C-alpha cells in the first residue's frame, strides 16, 4: 500500500512542481517580455485597447529616438554607475570585516547586534526622508552623486553584513584553527584564508547591492535636481504633463537594464551559490 501510494504520488508531485515552476517563470519573466515588446511598438499601437501586437506595428524608431537624444540618458547611466559602484564597493569593504567579526570574534551579544543591523531595513524610507533631506541640505550636498552614494550605502551595508555573516558562520572552524597554528593572526586568516573561499557570497552581495542602488527611485527623486539624476529619474521624464511617450520610455528602460542583466548572467553561478550559502548556513 505504501509503495502504491508513492508510485501514485510521485508523478502528481512532479506535475505540481513543474506547474509551480511554470507559473513562477511566467510571473517573473512576463513583465520583462512585455517591456521588450512595448519598446518595439509604435505609440498608437501601444496605447490602443487592446495593444496592437501585429507585425506591422513593430518598429525600431523608439530606440532610434532615445539614442538620438542620448545626452540625458547617458548622463543618468553614468550617475547611476558611479553611485552603484561606490555603494557596492564600500559596502563590501566595510561589510565583509564586520560580518566576519560578528561571526567569529568574541563580540558581546553578536546575535543581537546582527538582528539590529537587519532591523534597520524594516524602517520605511518615507519615515526618514524629511530628516535626511534636511541634513543633506544643511551640508550643501543636494544634487550630489557623493551624497546619494552614501545614502545607498546605508541601505546596502546591513544586507551585505547579514548575507556574509551567514556564510562565515558556515565555514568550518578547523580551517581557521589550522591557520592560527601556523601563526596567522585574525586579519591574516580573514584576508588569506576566508576571503578567497568567499567569492560566491561576495559576488551575490555585490550584485544585490549594485542592483538596489541602480534601481532606487525615491531617494534619488528627493535628493537630486539635474546634475546627479540617475537612470530611473531620466526614464520617468518620458511621462509628460499631457502625454506619456510609452514606447520611448520602454526603450530607455531596456537600455538601462542591459548592464544589470549582463551582470546577472556573468555572475549567475556565484549568485546562486552565494545566496544559498549565505542564507542557509547561518
TrEMBL record:
Residue ranges crossing the lipid bilayer per the database entry: 12-37, 81-101, 113-136, 148-168, 188-211, 245-267
Keyword NADP: no
InterPro entries listed in its UniProt record: BP-dep_ABC_trans_perm, MetI-like, MetI-like_sf
Location(s) in or outside the cell: Cell membrane
Membrane topology (UniProt): Multi-pass membrane protein
Keywords of the record: Cell membrane, Membrane, Transmembrane, Transmembrane helix, Transport
Location, primary (coarse class): membrane
Domain of life: Bacteria
CDD domains, A to Z: TM_PBP2
Record-annotated ABC transmembrane type-1 domain positions: 77-267
Family the UniProt entry places it in: Belongs to the binding-protein-dependent transport system permease family.
Name listed for the protein in its UniProt record: Carbohydrate ABC transporter permease
Amino acid at each position: 500500500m505504501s509503495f502504491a501510494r508513492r508510485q501514485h504520488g510521485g508523478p502528481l508531485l512532479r506535475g505540481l512542481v513543474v506547474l509551480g515552476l511554470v507559473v513562477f517563470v511566467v510571473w517573473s519573466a512576463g513583465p520583462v517580455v512585455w517591456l521588450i515588446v512595448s519598446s518595439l511598438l509604435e505609440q498608437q499601437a501601444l496605447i490602443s485597447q487592446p495593444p496592437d501586437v501585429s507585425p506591422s506595428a513593430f518598429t525600431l524608431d523608439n530606440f532610434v529616438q532615445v539614442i538620438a537624444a542620448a545626452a540625458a540618458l547617458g548622463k543618468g547611466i553614468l550617475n547611476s554607475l558611479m553611485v552603484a559602484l561606490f555603494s557596492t564597493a564600500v559596502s563590501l569593504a566595510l561589510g565583509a570585516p564586520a560580518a566576519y567579526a560578528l561571526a567569529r570574534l568574541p563580540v558581546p551579544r553578536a546575535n543581537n547586534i546582527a538582528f539590529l543591523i537587519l532591523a534597520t531595513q524594516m524602517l520605511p524610507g518615507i519615515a526618514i526622508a524629511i530628516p535626511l533631506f534636511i541634513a543633506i541640505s544643511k551640508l550643501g550636498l543636494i544634487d550630489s552623486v557623493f551624497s546619494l552614494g552614501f545614502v545607498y550605502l546605508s541601505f546596502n551595508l546591513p544586507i551585505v553584513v547579514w548575507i556574509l555573516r551567514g556564510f562565515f558562520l558556515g565555514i568550518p572552524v578547523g580551517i581557521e584553527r589550522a591557520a592560527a597554528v601556523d601563526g596567522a593572526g585574525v586579519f591574516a586568516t580573514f584576508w588569506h584564508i576566508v576571503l578567497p573561499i568567499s567569492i560566491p557570497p561576495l559576488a551575490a552581495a555585490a550584485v544585490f547591492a549594485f542592483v538596489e542602488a541602480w534601481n532606487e527611485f525615491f531617494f534619488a527623486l528627493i535628493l537630486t535636481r539635474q546634475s546627479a539624476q540617475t537612470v530611473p529619474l531620466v526614464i520617468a521624464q518620458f511621462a509628460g504633463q499631457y502625454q506619456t511617450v510609452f514606447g520611448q520610455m520602454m526603450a530607455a528602460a531596456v537600455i538601462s537594464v542591459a548592464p544589470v542583466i549582463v551582470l546577472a548572467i556573468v555572475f549567475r553561478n556565484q549568485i546562486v551559490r552565494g545566496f544559498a550559502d549565505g542564507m542557509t548556513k547561518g
